[in-house]
Amino acid sequence: MKIKWGILSTARIARTQFIPAIDRAENAEVVAIASRNNKVHNIARELNIPRAYESYEALLNDPDIDAVYIPLPNHLHKEWAISAIQKGKHVLSEKPATLTAEEATEIKEALISSPVKYMEGFMYQFHPQHERVKEIIASGEIGTVKQFNSSFSFHLGDRENSIKMQKEYGGGSLYDVGCYPIHAARMILGSEPIELQAFSLNDQDSGVDLTTSTFMKFAGNVIAKTESSIDMANRDEYEIIGTKGIVKVPHAFRPDKVGGVGTVIVEKDNEIRKEKFSGDIYRLEVEHFSSAILNDGTVSYTIDDTINNMKVMDACWDSIKTGRSVNIK
Amino acid sequence: MKIKWGILSTARIARTQFIPAIDRAENAEVVAIASRNNKVHNIARELNIPRAYESYEALLNDPDIDAVYIPLPNHLHKEWAISAIQKGKHVLSEKPATLTAEEATEIKEALISSPVKYMEGFMYQFHPQHERVKEIIASGEIGTVKQFNSSFSFHLGDRENSIKMQKEYGGGSLYDVGCYPIHAARMILGSEPIELQAFSLNDQDSGVDLTTSTFMKFAGNVIAKTESSIDMANRDEYEIIGTKGIVKVPHAFRPDKVGGVGTVIVEKDNEIRKEKFSGDIYRLEVEHFSSAILNDGTVSYTIDDTINNMKVMDACWDSIKTGRSVNIK
C-alpha cells in the first residue's frame, strides 16, 4: 500500500527534490499539488501529478490525500501545518518547523487531539553515514568527545529576488541553513545544550542575518560550535574532536549534491581512514514517514525534538540581541 | 660569516628543534648553552655545543655570543629578553613573547636604546605555503574573503609534570598554542581585529584554560575564529572562506611533523586542487634572523607585531572574565 501525498506549493525544493523522491519511494505516491497561482495546472502536468488545486484549502479538503508536504516560505509553516493537522492530514514540514519554540508548541498542542503524524523534514539525518559516526564515537576510537563543529553555508547570488532576504518571511541564514548544524550537534552528542552564545553579521538593508555563529556548552564540558551563512562558499560539514582523534563528515547535509555518497573520515595522529556510504536522503525521508503512517509507528524525529531545536534557535536570537551568553531551559 | 648563538635553558624544544635547526642553517652556529642545573655539561657534550654555563647571566656575559634563543617557561620570557638586550645580545624569543601587551611594550622600550634585533619566534610563518595562500587570495580565485578559521590543539597526557598546567608560569592553551591561530588570522587577513569575544573551559584544579575559542571581527565584516586546546586531538590548521571558494591549510603550524611538507587545498564547488610545498621552518627562522643581524636588515616580525598579537590575547582574557565582547585598540 502507498501513502497518497499532496504538496502544498510549487516551491523549487518540491519540484526538484521532494516530488521526484516520492516517485522513487516504494510506499508513496503524489496525487495532488496546490498553489495560489493558476500555473499549478501546467506544473502538475509536467510532473505527472494527477490533481492540481488553486488553493491550499482545496487540497486539504481532498479526502483521498493521506499526507501533505509543506515547502512554503518559513513564516507560513506553522499556519498550514496546523490547518492540515486539523483536516486529519499527516504533515511533513520543511525546516524550520516554525519561527519560534512557542509556535512549535502550538503544533504540539494541535497534535494532542489528532491521530496524525507530524515530522520536521531534516532529510540529511536519514543518510547512513551518521549512524556510522555514532558507532565510531561509541567504539572509543577517537577517545573522549570534547567538541562538535559544523558549518552549512552557500553564497546567495540573486538577492533581490530571494525570499531568503525577507525578514518577515523568516529569511536569513539561521532559519535557512543554521537549523541543520544545530540539529546535527544535538543528534550526534545525543543531548541538549545548556548554554549558548551567538553572533550574527546582518545585511544592512534587509536586516536578515547573513552569517550566524554559535558557541554552545553541553553537559560534561563538551562544546559545539555551529555556523550558517548565505554569504560564503558552499560548506555542509561537521566534525567531532575527541582526545585521541577526529571524525569528519565533509558532505553532512547535502550528500545528494555528490551523488548521495557520504564520506566518514577518521583522523588519528597522521593516519587517515575514509569510509563511504550511499544514501538517497529525500527518498529515505519519504519512506520513513510513509512507513510510520502505514504501520502506525513513531517518527524518528518528534515534535518534542523540533521544539528543542527551536529553543536553541530562540536562544541564538536572544544572545545576538543582548550580546551575552544565554541559558537554555 | 656565521652568527654565534647561545641557548638560554635546556628546554626540550631547544634540544629537539632549535639547536638541530641552527646546525642545519648556513649562517649560524651554536656556541653555548646555559642552565641553572649542572646537567648542562652533559647536555652540551651530547649536542656538541662547545661551552656550557650554569647560569643565564654567565652566558649573557660571554662576549663571543651574538644572539640568544629563549625557550624558557613563558613567564620568564620578558625578564631574560630584556637582560639579553641590555647585554647587547640579539634575541629570538619563543612565543608568547610575554604574558601581556604591556610586558611586550617593556621589551620595545628596552630596544629603543639598543642596536640589537629582537623577534618572537613564530617559526611556522617561514613556511612557503603561507605566501602561496596569500597569492591565491589576491588572485580572486576564492572571491571576496569572508572568514578565517583556525585551530591548534593537542591532548596533553602527563598533566602532573607539565608546566603547561601551571597558571603562574603562563600555562594553559591560549599562551601555549592559541597565540598561533591569532597570529595566523592577522597575518593572512593583513590587518588587526577590531572586536573580540572569547570563551574558555578551565581546568578545575589548576585554573588554566584547557580550551579557548575566539570570535573576532575585522574591518569589512570579515570574521576570524580561532581555537586552542591542550585537551583534544592534534589539529594545526587554518582555512579561508571566500564567496566563491575555500583555501585550506591542514598542516599550518607544524608541517615539520609531516616531513616539512605543507599542503594548500583549494575547494571550489566540488573541485579540489592540492598544492604541496616543502620548507624547513626552524632552519628558515634561524637563517632569517641570523641574516637580519648579519646584514642589519629588518626582521619580518617586529616587536610592534608582537605587541599587537599580545593585545588580542589580552582582549581574550578580558572577554573570558567579563563574558562580553571587547573592543581592541
UniProtKB/TrEMBL annotation, chains A, B:
Record's keyword terms, sorted: Oxidoreductase
Protein's UniProt name: Oxidoreductase
Pfam families with a match to the protein in the record: GFO_IDH_MocA, GFO_IDH_MocA_C3
Native organism taxonomy: Bacteria, Bacillati, Bacillota, Bacilli, Bacillales
Domain (GFO/IDH/MocA-like oxidoreductase) ranges: 131-247
UniProt domain Gfo/Idh/MocA-like oxidoreductase N-terminal: residue ranges: 4-122
Molecular function (Gene Ontology), one example: nucleotide binding
Recorded family membership: Belongs to the Gfo/Idh/MocA family.
Gene3D superfamilies registered for this protein in UniProt: Dihydrodipicolinate Reductase, domain 2, NAD(P)-binding Rossmann-like Domain
